[in-house]
Amino acid sequence: MTELSPQEKEFLDKLIAEIKLHISEEEFGVSDLAEEMNMSRSNLLRKVKKMTDLSVSQFINKIRLEEAMALLRNTSSNVSEVSHQVGFNSPSYFIKCFREHYGYPPGEVGKHPEKQEEAYSDSSSKNPQKRTLILALSGLGLILILLGTWLGKDFFKSQSNLEKSIVVLPFKNDSSDSTNVYLINGLMEATLNNLQKIKDLRVLSRTSAEKYRGSSKSIPEMADELNVNYLVEGSGQKIGDNIVLNIQLIDGTKDRHLWSKQYRREVSDIFALQQEISKDIAKEIQAVITPEEKSRIEKEPTDNLKAYDSFMKGLDLLNQGRDENLLESVVYFEEAIKEDGQFALAYACAGMAYYYYDMFKADKTHLDQLGTYADKAMLYDPTLGESMIAKAMYYLAKKEYTEALPFLEKGLEFRPNSSLIIGLLADFYANNLPDTEKYLEYALMGMQLDAGSSDSVATSYFYLRVGNALIQTGFVEESSAYLDKSLEYFSGNAYSQYVKAFISYAKDKDLNHTRDLLQIEYNKDSSRFDILQDLGKVSYYLRDYDAAYNYYSQFNEIRENLQLNVYVHENMIIGETYEKVGKAEEGREFIESYRAYLENDQTAYKNLGLTMYYAHEGDFERALTHFREFEKEDNIQYWVILFLPEDPLADKIIQEPEFQKIWSRIVDKFWKNNAEIRNRLEEKGIW
């Protein structure tokens, strides 16, 4: 930027003053500013470009962000409030722009020292000495710009301003020998795993990248679909005892090759090769690697190359999935363990293979083997992310959920970009220890790292998870949009249609409509006893007890015949339904089984259950005692807000003045928390 004349400085001051006058108006743009300055749009563009080397829209955004920084430092306004005050009606977009401009998110302003803004901020014009100093520095800046141009660099759009988001595309096997594919895939996997250990990066999952294997899409198309700035391409082959690997880093936004390198190493140097590649990539995009991360990257999994060769063959099969591949992968992992009895990574992956094999089976036939392998992995390397995953999977398979959580959380500390661990945590807070905020947070985190696989069905269920997390937290429209996206990928996703049936009630408060939608889904698949149970519940809410009994009796017959210990938490209203149709003795059995269930309930809903139980018993004093305790709970599901007023069990106690006051506070707290959750997730850059 050249030295400004007094007239130019005056012009910039006036320009900044006009922008600040309209700073909260998101729609205030180039044409509006030109009109306020009594100039044509083209003249304004030329003049601002000449003085600042920025476009007018860039200049407006810069002033907005400077004002945001001042508000964040000097006021008590939160990020969402500031974003609206400076004309960003989308806090998530504000966070993105702020991060790109300052290098860190607005929520971390307090952690960074205050820095002087550039000369054309109007605050400098009030201090002649400061202005002279800044103009002198601007002269130096001009030299740097010219030098940067000479070196082929774009000063204002340097790599450091890009978000450090990256995807490692599938490496290509340059050899005609297809038996080497597992080796090339293993090198890609190792590169990905090492990068995933760096918290300063956002590294997309392997499944996100896998769908582009053999794809003809352009780099910008892939970058746009994956929402990443950097892409890593690789190809290689094994020639005798040597590996030749070509790696290149590409700026996806510009389709520009930033760096490339050919690595020639002996097979015996494979671990050093893996470490070197990941460090070179991280260095090129200026990612910060902590000493702990560096130590984890540099740790060699084994000193036995024969064991590692067997391991890579097993890993390739594990990543392919399907039962036959999972069992075959264990054969190779066991070969690796036979060669190196302390190979923690091989133990962990063998355990994971057994977990996936048994995942949807009622009889966990490999539970003991999973436990043994997980213990061995932890014994030989308790700082390995995969060891933590295997141990957590063992407890999840045993349904000892609280025991699994510390291993999942520690695993994420070791592998901050692991979409596998994040997915397990999302499901944990959805099903095992319900917490709507954490469920939503991990579901959204997973979405940032996993752009879906080549399998449209799997992608559909991925969007279902996010949609389900959103509705449970009260974000109705957002949830509906994700479920629609889920159905775009796989129209036969019955679970997405199932959740949408309940979303319909959130929108129209028409229980008959909800029941009709559930009936449509049940007619498609009469084995869906989960829908059968909900048809009974909605009929119960409608006070249509005969219909509710009809559905529940079918549901209970299935539950009994298959000896399923499921939906015990629904036994209270099932028992109430039976009593309403004159089946008092059977109804009582269900109600007492529910009371026994509550004894061991560790969720936030235990006191609500006891409230309903004692309300049914006519003991309103004890019911209110438990309702007061339930009021203390945070992050309850939106379903409680929607359906508790419809529950016949509450018909009598809902008339109690204290119940009404507590309920009013619970509802207010829910919606306040809803807004705060959104703000917190936006500040973290997750929303």
TrEMBL record:
Keywords: DNA-binding, Membrane, TPR repeat, Transcription, Transcription regulation, Transmembrane, Transmembrane helix. Coiled coil: none annotated. The chain crosses the membrane at residues 133-152. Residues 13-112 form the HTH araC/xylS-type domain. Residues 109-118 have a biased composition (Basic and acidic residues). It comes from the Bacteria. Residues 107-126 are annotated as: Disordered. Gene3D superfamilies: Homeodomain-like, Tetratricopeptide repeat domain, TolB, N-terminal domain. The keyword ATP-binding does not apply. InterPro entries: Homeodomain-like_sf (IPR009057), HTH_AraC (IPR018060), HTH_AraC-typ_CS (IPR018062), TPR-like_helical_dom_sf (IPR011990), TPR_rpt (IPR019734). TPR repeats lie at residues 385-418. SUPFAM superfamilies: Homeodomain-like (SSF46689), TPR-like (SSF48452). This is Helix-turn-helix domain-containing protein. It comes from Algoriphagus pacificus.
